Amino acid sequence: MRKYLKWIAASLMVLVGIAAILITWPMLTQDEYTHRQVKAIAPASNNLLLDFYPHISTVTRPLETFTFPIALGEIGPSKNLYSGPNQYPFFCMTLDSGLGQPEIDNQQGFGVPVYDEQKKVIGYSKDCGVKTRLSYFAIDENLQPYPISSEALHTSTDKLFKVEQGTINRFIYTLIMPVSVDEVGDRLAKSQWNQRLIYQFNGGSGIGYRQGRQSAWKVMKRQAQQLLDGYAVISSSGNKTSYTYNMLLAEDTARRVKEQFTSLYGEPIYTVGIGGSGGGLAQYLIGQNSSGILDGLIPLYSYPDMITQTTYALDCDLLNNYFTFRAKNRKAWRDWERRRLIEGMNAINDFPQRAGFLQPLNQLMAGFVPSFPKGNSECINGYFGLSAFINNPKQGFLRQFFAKPVVAQTNWSYWQDMQHVFGTDTDGFGQSTWDNVGVQYGLKALLDKKVTMAEFLDINKNIGAWKYQNQMHREQIVTPLGTQIPLWLSLWGSDNITESKSYSAPRHHGSLQAMEAAYRSGQVFIGQVHLPIIDARHYLENDLDMHHMSASFYSRLRIESAQGHHKNHVIWVAHKDHDPTTQAFAMMDKWLSNIKQHTPEGIIAAKPHDLKDTCFNADGSTFAAGNHVFDGSWNQQNDGACQSRFPMYSTSRIEAGAPWAGDIFKCALIDVDTAVRQGMYGKDITTREIIALKTIFVEGVCDYSQGDVGRPKDI
After folding, report:
1. Pseudo-torsion of CA 445, 446, 451, 452, nearest 10°?
2. Fewer beta carbons within 10 angstroms: which end of the chain, N or C?
């Protein structure tokens, strides 16, 4: 009787949870859920565009074929210069960006419909072009940009800016130049410019298939202070990773957007990148892979690259599925700080979950006694849903933009977005780099005696892996309360995780072809960047934010490995109440202005003496600075002052024994007997435990000392 009362009580709690979500779930605009009818276009061939051997940084980019600048009233190039065939379907978002309907480019029904004033369809746009146009904005004393009318141009006391917008490579670009009142109407005016250029990158998780939004107001708001200081700013929706993580396409687009700028205003003294999250990793990769676009980098909240992040982020739902449904002793994992031992990233007891009601709901459906979570983790708070939206080709979080036939024939995943680089399998699915064969989840905790051998075996027996792309299907998500409040009935992607067929759940082999292509095409950060870098971030570990501090040090370790030093790489970590961006621009200006020779040695020689690794207090004062302030587990040193002030966490793969650089996508395997002889499990392992390990790890276990099997030997 008590058991049933618990079930009833938990069910009531679910209803309460749903009511709470009605209040707290972030509201999305109706436009984001409007169904649009878009016809499909046959996909282009799967041939890779370039010969990447040995690495994209050694490949000469082709000469420009388009004549810049784009004239006012004309449309920029719709075909990429060197980054592969256009991707279709491709949803136009010029209306969403305040630029009106796209230009008609066909009458065959490809793309979005274009309407006349009577709302009659007069044609279609598959490449989303808009005519280049100028407008004017101002920035007020509160750093708020606003459009300014022609009547107010000559009476405003706020600083004026000329804004040019159009399309390049089908993405929306924006150029912003400070001007005087007397220069209004002069497209080439630049008297208020300080000759320095900022290229603004932006983040988010994207899988392609759409043009993306870009508003002049948002670009200006992000760099309002720099604009007032006299910088010019350029950007493109193609350089926001919400819309694609194809860094070759991002580079191609950035190069052309900069060409549009320089063809109008001449070469700047320098171009510095700025942008957070995906906008940070884009700078690392464009700076590594190419020249002529960026001279200095200010990556914020950065990661080294997307693939590094997917390696451990796609473990999150596997682990949550294990803790919630598969663990032999599920109660033991209700201590969220114990989960940190396996997940690596931070987890906190009594930290609320926005969608915590989904756990008892799914437990009820699975026939378990339900319970509300009494804690939270970065795996949930930061990465919930990533496995479905990035990895699952059948999920399609963009599906509301497209007609049903298009939705049915498109594989909606990051891997599919990259198919012209990574290749496709025999079923036409984009090949994935994600691999967990031989990964021993929780190995470090076992050696530290923080989990038992029984727990270690249970985790690795039952965690499983993501099914292969051709075996996946849509998650069970219903929306009885509207699309703003989705109810996941297959929590943690449980329907798409392998299950035990004999003794243990099968693991997933990543594609070696995709890994090699990822390296050669520059989708992986290998540390070969010789530009000035100030890597800055807020400390957000206690907020369980996905932008974890350790990611900056993955980049540093790769730079050290590639160059033998990190003298061009500075890391700043600030209390979340202090924004060090303005300081970073000032320091970068000193650094770039000091350069006499544009060589790796010349760049290091120009570095300001007072520019060091630093952590900042909430009031902006320096807590500590110097060469060793961030020392810690990542470099096998005792904790430095900043590491003590702002503790750093790891990842599931580091806790499984992988190196801190995070640059192993597929480990070399050794058999269990060899691992035992090498002392991988300590001295007290029993014969029965060895037999269990052999049954779980039939193919062997990871030997990370051999490096990444997926990395070509000539890179």
Report:
1. 180
2. N
